[in-house]
Input
Amino acid sequence: MNLFAFQHLDVWKRACCLACDIYTELATCRDFGLKDQMTRAAVSIASNIAEGEERESKAESARFLYFAKGSSGELATQIYIAIEIGVIEKQNGFKLIKEAREISAMLGALIKIRKGSVRESAAEYNIKPNI
Output
């Protein structure tokens, strides 16, 4: 089976795992509005990475990576709220926020690569670009 280019990116793999972790964490959550928002934001991160990498240009890729980065911030905000209202245990929530923050940093580095402004920082975030 041939992999899509995005499947080689560590940031995409981690975003998929984060989405699965969010689904697991919220499995018994009865606040369906918050649960829906959080799962959508989590799924959006990996989905936008994939969509961007399937685009025809680096500029289009960067645009969708910005969307993914925005979704990671959205998810972190929702996790903070979920902690405060008792939907997610504080310790678990902070682990999820840390992962969202790290994914956001990886996306920032990949955006710079796609825009051609930085090429070295990819190694710092274990990003293997397909340039």
